[in-house]
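Lecture notes, part 5. Sequence design as translation. It can be helpful to think of inverse folding as translation between two languages: the language of shapes and the language of residues. The source text, in structure tokens, appears below.
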């Protein structure tokens, strides 16, 4: 199943192999500002100008209604127990009136706590998978709250200069914090177990780091840290310099990932099943390579104009693509055999994600990045296009999450299911070449 929102519509669809539209019993008639599934796929929430609503993702029955105006985004806790909402910050005489990040109980719509969160970027609280704690960054500290008592922090991690942090997934959660370089001192990333803040379990220092992105393995056992500078002092790149570091949550191993090609790091992806990862890096055309849990090179996927990598949920099929100002070609690889399955054309796509069954890859062309040819396309991993729907001014589309165990991986990659309709892309009208440009005064001569 997947859900989408556009300027004039919101919808839920059953995905291939039996694609169909789902009837929404209480469909909003105005523009939907936000749309989100809970990470476990239990709930779907949307927000309109006057309220937010939580529905059962399977039956579409209304679970709760939050009559609160001005909500611009929504996000769930890992098990969907709590719904977070964000609205624009505005100063108020009353302290509570300035609190624009709110936490509600999904099942009842009851308000559980509020915070000030001025910036929209990374606005949501970060949660441990068991929902025991949620965390928020303050000046020089990360505060951890029990969701049943959001008025006072249960735990506090203090470190001067923290600008970013990330809570790991997994049964034994860790937290990584980043302090940028200043006054000649190197930048650092420190990793702690949640609740054990007296001593870090891992510590890594480096120069040339103004900001970082954290990539945790699904089990929370390993972390990749992508560091970036705002400016490349060598003048070779418009985007600044970037490096990649590997850290084990156990604290027994860390290193810089050695990349044999100069230029930016475009994308990083963990295999969700194995302890290995893929990196796309270097000046275009970029190189894509597979590394093991010791950051040693395992396989080279070659050099091509690519800037996106994503494993399917079973870790069996890898998509390597070039989006943005690139052509939109997606190469699909069989990880087990390390052979290319084929290629698909997803030109214009600004969203690309595997379905939870691992057999279907969705790409969507979204507004406002592109205001023409908006729509959703779905391919089977054999590269057959099995679904195509054009939707005017499409803003967002998301798969409904589901546990990977529900869709067991077969030893051999299965063919397209029997009876499925192969969706042929609609032919584009041929455009007559315009010829060389002639200035107005030279025309018709």
């Amino acid at each position: 199943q997947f859900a989408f929102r556009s300027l004039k519509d919101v919808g839920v669809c059953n995905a291939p192999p039996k694609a169909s539209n789902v009837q929404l019993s209480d469909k909003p008639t105005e523009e939907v500002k936000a749309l989100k599934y809970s990470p476990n796929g239990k709930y779907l929430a949307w927000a309109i100008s006057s309220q937010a609503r939580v529905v059962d993702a399977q039956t579409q029955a209304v679970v709760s209604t939050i009559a609160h105006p001005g909500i611009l985004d929504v996000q769930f806790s890992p098990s969907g127990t709590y719904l977070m909402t964000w609205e624009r910050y505005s100063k108020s005489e009353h302290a509570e009136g300035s609190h624009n990040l709110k936490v509600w109980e999904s099942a009842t719509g009851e308000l559980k706590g509020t915070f000030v969160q001025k910036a929209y970027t990374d606005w949501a609280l970060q949660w441990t998978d068991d929902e025991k704690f949620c965390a928020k960054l303050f000046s020089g500290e990360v505060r951890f709250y029990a969701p049943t008592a959001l008025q006072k922090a249960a735990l506090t991690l203090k470190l001067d200069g923290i600008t970013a942090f990330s809570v790991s997934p997994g049964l034994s959660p860790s937290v990584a914090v980043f302090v940028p370089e200043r006054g000649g001192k190197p930048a650092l990333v420190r990793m702690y177990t949640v609740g054990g803040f007296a001593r870090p379990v891992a510590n890594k220092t480096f120069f040339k780091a103004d900001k970082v992105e954290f990539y945790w393995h699904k089990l929370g056992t390993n972390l990749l840290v992508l560091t970036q500078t705002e400016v490349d002092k060598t003048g070779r790149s418009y985007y600044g310099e970037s490096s990649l570091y590997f850290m084990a949550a156990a604290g027994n191993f860390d290193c810089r990932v050695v990349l044999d090609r100069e230029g930016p790091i475009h994308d990083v992806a963990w295999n969700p099943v194995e302890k290995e990862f893929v990196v796309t890096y270097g000046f275009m055309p970029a190189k894509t390579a597979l590394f093991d849990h010791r950051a040693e090179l395992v396989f080279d996927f070659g050099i091509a104009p690519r800037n996106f990598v994503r494993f399917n949920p079973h870790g069996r099929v890898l998509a390597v693509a070039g989006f943005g100002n690139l052509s939109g070609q997606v190469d699909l690889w069989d990880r087990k055999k390390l052979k290319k399955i084929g290629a698909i054309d997803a030109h214009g796509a600004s969203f690309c994600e595997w379905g939870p069954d691992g057999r279907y890859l969705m790409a969507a062309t979204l507004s406002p990045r592109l205001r023409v040819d908006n729509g959703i396309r779905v391919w089977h991993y054999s590269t057959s296009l099995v679904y195509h729907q054009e939707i005017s001014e499409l803003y967002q589309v998301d798969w409904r999450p589901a546990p990977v165990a529900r869709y067991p991986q077969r030893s051999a990659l299965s063919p397209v299911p029997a009876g499925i309709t192969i969706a042929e892309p609609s032919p584009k009208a041929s455009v007559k070449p315009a010829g060389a440009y002639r200035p107005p005064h030279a025309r018709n001569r």
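The translated text above is only one of many valid answers, since several sequences can fold into similar shapes. The radius of gyration is 23 Å.
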